[in-house]
Amino acid sequence: MALAGALVAAGWLIHLGTALAGTEEFSSFDVITQEEDDESLIDHLLARPPRAWRDEWERSRQGIRTSQGCLTSGQWFIDTQLKLGAPLGERARFGLEVREEQSDIVSYQYFDFSFRFPTRWGTPGAMFRPFHDKSRQDFALTWETGADTTALQLQTAFTFEDTFNNLWAFRQTRVGNHAEPYARHPFQPALRFVSRAGPWRADVSGRWLTPSRRRIPVETTGVTERATLWGALVRASVEGEALGTEWEVAGLNRQASSTAWSSDGSSRSSDFRRQWSGEGAVRRRLRALTTEIRWLYQQGDQRIEPTAGVSDLAQIDRVLQIEATYGRSSGWAARVGALHDRITVSQAGLAPFTTYGTRVESRAYVGLTARFGVVSVSAAEGLELDHEPYDVWWVHDKAFLDLQASF
């Protein structure tokens, strides 16, 4: 009975921490579009939910969290996750995870139905992701061991991307109103490993979208176009406490490559994009006051090679963030801080895109965090510190809202 109870607890606590991705996350990934927002990186930093919310989210059985805010006068940032669960018997679990991100980096929306069956050898499971376009539907096999309360936690997944698009006995080859069968089908293995030892925690995860190749017949010309796509995403972080201070380092590397060419050689194009970052933070608590200093370095590049020429964009961000938070155990807290981003941009070849060029972006901000029952809310108002080349309402420099509820 003790073993059964532990397995049930693990089934409750573990959700798809491997964050099963899809082709949409890599096909929509773009570096150039981030230049449409001259303050893109500091916008994404200010939209992050409070770090103190993480443990509650990971341990909650069901919940919703969302981060939203303004990127430009015409673009709204959305990052939302919903997780629900229900028993499938004594130990097996049914789960629903909804994930949506709409930003200048990626754009996707997933509804994942999962089924988990805890055993003494871990928790095997399966996931199904439906789409109206049947050829885009995904299926995954998963295996997990450990939980967010154990010293070691391992989560693995293997996703059959676009399962019904010309895969083995499944002969669904239509994408919208066109037949786009795969000559090489994509798969996506994923892994996440977490280690905990007292106040220290290390978290490493990665996904790889295997190279795919599609045939796209053009009925009007009789020419068959071909398209390829592959991508990879790796995250790593280490955090802990020493000398009365909290320390944190983290890194991310995301890249994707796609090509398209016609069978008669009349056209050919390629699009390679990559973005990686490294950051470190030092945090000190003194009763109700918490101070934090964070440094982040991010580098991105994108190379587009159409038939007519080549376009290159490279950008480097160097961000310094300083923040102070004053809060009591009642759940209310006030925060004040500043962000300074030194940006270097270089471009070559044809430039079918706009950029604000090499520049410095600075912003102060004030915020308030509150808790109402099981609902936590955090809002931040940016204060402009630069002279911008566009109209700004007084000192208002965008606003962001985070919400999290566990139930």
Summary?
The protein is mostly beta strands. It has a single domain (23-115, 181-406), classed as Lipocalin.
Percentage of residues assigned to helices: under 10%
pLDDT below 50 for ≥5 consecutive residues: which ranges? Answer: 1-17, 168-172
State the CATH topology. Lipocalin
Gyration radius over CA? 23 Å
Please count the helical segments. 4
The domain tally reads 1
Overall spatial form: globular
Broad CATH class:
Mainly Beta
Question: Whole-number average pLDDT?
Answer: 87
Q: What's the story with the biggest beta sheet?
A: 18 strands, antiparallel, barrel
Query: H/E series, N to C?
Result: HHHHEEEEEEEEEEEEEEEEEEEEE
> How many strand segments?
21
**What fraction of residues sit in β-strands?**
over 45%
CATH architecture: Beta Barrel
Q: What distance lies between the first and last C-alpha atoms, to the nearest angstrom?
A: 26 Å
Task: Please identify the structural class as seen in this structure.
Answer: mainly beta
